Amino acid sequence: MTLLREHAEHQFAEELEQLAQADDRARPPNWKLSPQAVALYLMGCKLNNGFEITPKYIGKQRLIEIAIATLATDRALLLLGIPGTAKSWVSEHLSAAISGDSTLLVQGTAGTPEEAIRYGWNYARLLVEGPSMNALVASPVMRAMETGAIARIEELTRVPADVQDTLITILSEKTLPIPELDSEVQAQKGFNVIATANDRDRGVNDLSSALKRRFNTVVLPLPDTADEEIEIVRVRSESLGRALELPAEPPALAEIRRVVTIFRELRSGVTEDGKTKIKSPSGTLSTAEAISVITSGLSLAAHYGDGILRASDLAAGITGTVIKDPVQDRLVWLEYLETVVKERDGWKDVYRACREVTG
């Protein structure tokens, strides 16, 4: 059976094994690697034996070091940023490198129940046996406490406030009470929590002051430079193309640069040269969206073209990403096409393809 997407600890198993063999620094209890080796795994390096560790995060190393140092203490980690800044990606790889298991995951939604963070019950056994440990269904957080591993909670600010606050006792006392059994689960050394939240959702279910104090917050920003963002998009889109077995050539840097330039200009409200102010659409237009546009274009080029990524393959993805509000965003996009793209040297193909799709 071929998996569509392997967990990080399986996909990068060889890298983790090589790092573990070369890692001679002190490791916190139950950590698979030292904090220094975890940082090398995230940022990439070449080991003394010549083995290449691929970068998982392209950005400021200090942010990753702060995140790792936090997880080595009794404070939980909150990764904050706008959608598409690799919060989930970083969370998964931190868990894989530290615990060797990135699957202890709670996906936060408006309907996430308290049982997803604490525990639930197997009601068939509960009716037959009554309350017992055998009838209890452990949550990912509870399993992480029992094994001294990292638990991940995605989109914490989407979780209802009363459910969020079930974390307070877990994070402060490192204990999960089970009053039905007059018992508790105490966290083993190595246990911690990585939560993610995005800036756009702060007002949905903002964290209480009591819960905020249990977290150290690391803000993951958008890439500082266009070159940095282009490299992220190149690496991830090539990786996704291989995983999806798309019969297309790797995307040309020129096409990636044009997509990234469009998104950066629309995000910032000014052209790359700083000479023309433009309106910004309602969407995020993050690096993650740029990766999605390139991957979608590769699929079009592979299955309905000659396997070479061109502007015509990208136009629909760019337009669909920019136009979230069919009225206001469409006006913003058309104005940008006419005032910026149409006048830019070497971009006539982008203009024609996007106008054809936009109408």
Report Rg.
23 Å
Assign the CATH superfamily of the largest domain: P-loop containing nucleotide triphosphate hydrolases
- Integer count of domains: 2
> SSE order, as H and E?
HHHEEHEHEEHEHEHHEEEHEHHHHHH
Largest sheet: 5 strands, parallel
Apparent shape: globular
The end-to-end span amounts to: 43 Å
The CATH topology of the largest domain: Rossmann fold
Contiguous uncertain segments of 5+ residues: none
What percent of residues are in strands? 5-15%
Strand arrangement in the largest pleated sheet: 4-7-10-3-11
Number of helices: 16
What is the residue-averaged pLDDT? 94
The CATH class of the largest domain: Alpha Beta
The assigned CATH architecture of the largest domain is: 3-Layer(aba) Sandwich
Task: Give me the count of strands.
Answer: 11
Percent range for helical residues? 40-55%
Estimated structural class = alpha/beta
Protein model, in words:
With 359 residues, the protein is α/β, with parallel strands linked by helices. It has helices spanning 8-11, 13-22, 35-43, 61-71, 87-99, 123-129, 140-147, 161-164, 167-173, 209-212, 226-243, 253-268, 287-304, 311-322, 328-341, 348-358; strands at residues 45-46, 52-53, 76-81, 105-107, 119-121, 136-138, 150-154, 175-178, 183-186, 192-198, 215-219. The protein folds into 2 domains: 8-219, Rossmann fold (3-Layer(aba) Sandwich); 226-358. The strands form 4 sheets. It has a 5-stranded parallel beta sheet. A hairpin with a 4-residue loop joins strand 8 and strand 9. Helix 3 packs antiparallel against helix 4, helix 11 packs across helix 12 and helix 14 packs across helix 16.
